[in-house]
Amino acid sequence: xxxxxxxxxxLMFVPHAKHPIPDASxxxxxxxxxxxxxxxxxxxxxxxxxxxxxKSGKATNAIIQKLTKNPRFLIASFDLRAAxxxxxxxxxxxxxxxxxxxxxxxxxxxxxxxxxxxxxxxxRVSCIxxxxxxxxxxxxxxxxxxxxxxxxxxxxxTQFRLTPPPSEPNEKE
Length: 173
Description:
globular; 7 helices
């Protein structure tokens, strides 16, 4: 199982979203296809889901339907286990005399990012896919594999489409 953060959810649901890597949405779409082919699930931490739903407008119901109807997606809440994990992470940061662990983000954002990592950690994901600098730092500090869009490569010679090609008209013989 892997986890997606807000950027990956955005690229999944908004194929033309701006990103510094021109083929970012295609890379995420390929990753989803690859994960599906391997039978892996994608964990969606509720704090990351809330961020995309805030911006989704009329697409909210479609996003929720896609994520809840497909068994490849697992929406995971910030529950008691995650709260305990977050407390351990925060205590460790405070014992290093830096509750922010080097981040310059607001305290609210740091706690939010730690929630995402705590959920992923208690769900035992093998990798977090994130572009967020703080999520990446926290995940790595917690011993997790963290990859970004640039780490996803589409094999050379593969023509990967975001949408299916138009159907061919039926030819009668």
